[in-house]
Amino acid sequence: MKFNLVSLVYKLVVVLFISTLLIPGQTSLAPVEDVFIYTFGGGQGANIFLKYNISSLPGDIVVDSAFLTPFVHFVGTNWDGDAKFFNVNSQIWTGADSSRLIYSIATSESTHQSTGFAIALGQARSVDLRNIVNIDYSGGHTFCSIKIKDPDDMTFQPPPGSYPVNSNETLAVGEILSNCYVFVYPSEYSNAPPWLVIYHHTVDLSENDDAANLSVNAHPNPFNQSITIQGCSPNGSRLSAVIYNAIGSKITLLENHQGTDNKNIFAWDGCNESGIQQPNGTYFCILRNQDRTKTLRINLIR
After folding, report:
1. Could you list the pLDDT tens digit for every one of the 302 residues in the chain?
2. C-alpha closest to that of 74 among 215, 218, 206, 184
3. How many other C-beta atoms lie within 10 A of the C-beta of residue 14?
4. Which architecture does CATH list for 205-300?
5. φ and ψ at 273, to 5 degrees?
6. Distance CA 284, CA 52 (A)
7. How far apart are CA 184 and CA 167, in angstroms?
8. Is 240 helix (H, G, I), strand (E, B) or coil?
9. What is the rounded distance in angstroms from the CA atom of residue 177 to the CA atom of residue 225?
10. CB within 8 A of 16, min separation 6: which ones?
11. What residue ranges do the domains of the chain occupy?
């Protein structure tokens, strides 16, 4: 009982310690490019492509959640609110590119909303798309592009020589011939563009003079498979290192492979103590010796 109580108190202290460092914020972005592309092959589909400039986001935030909030102005009679969102792996596409060029861009980190997307007139809200946003934010990219496709739309190929619809009036997604589609306003409607709303927080990593005497570094950072963390204290004392996620939950205790010149060497493979891979995002490595604590921010991108 005594061990469990001490362990619980320790965990609460760590969570409270990290929580006091969190500074919340919100950023709403309108797209710098927004088009839709017709596709064929078993029907006539419409697919939305949105490009956001995320360079205005502070460089030291943790993305807590992200939502698309387009304004719906028409709903087809058979639209069921089923939508799939993808990260578009390109920084350079524009609405002047051909439909086939844009549609052929590789995508990743898809998120499926099975119901409830844009089912009524007015402002809609997607499911959480932070994993899509984090691909580009954690990668230090200028833009984040999102593709929206109806999973029930089986069309797969734009016509040869066609170009995206860059309309001042509407964006469309869904299967047109079966009335399973929805229209939303584009960025030209300055009061109702398809906003990307990002909720985030900043972690205050300011430290006292004693902590500054702990020399730490991590590489590569961001990482996708493993990261090496090195720490050195001025008195040569042994360090411990624990990984926490952005909300203060403990992920794992790292093994110390103490090297020469008072170096403490740790490696993390992006898994928790049970060997389960952790999602993309920002994590914190807290290094300690007897009287000093140092917090290191690390980013996992797979």
Report:
1. 454 555 555 454 545 455 445 567 899 999 999 999 999 998 999 999 999 999 999 877 888 899 999 999 999 999 999 999 999 999 999 999 999 999 999 999 899 999 999 999 999 999 999 999 988 988 889 999 999 999 999 999 999 999 999 989 999 999 999 999 999 999 999 999 999 999 998 765 555 445 556 788 899 999 999 999 998 877 777 888 999 887 778 899 999 887 777 789 999 999 999 999 998 888 999 888 877 788 888 989 88
2. 184
3. 16
4. Sandwich (2.60)
5. -65, -15
6. 28
7. 11
8. strand
9. 45
10. none
11. 26-201, 205-300
Give me 145's structure tokens.
Answer: 């592009």
Q: Tell me the C-alpha distance between 164 and 93, whole Å.
A: 12
Whose tokens are 């690390």? That residue is: 298
CB 148 within 8 A of CB 85: yes
Residue count (the chain): 302
Tell me the whole-structure pTM to 2 decimals.
Answer: 0.73
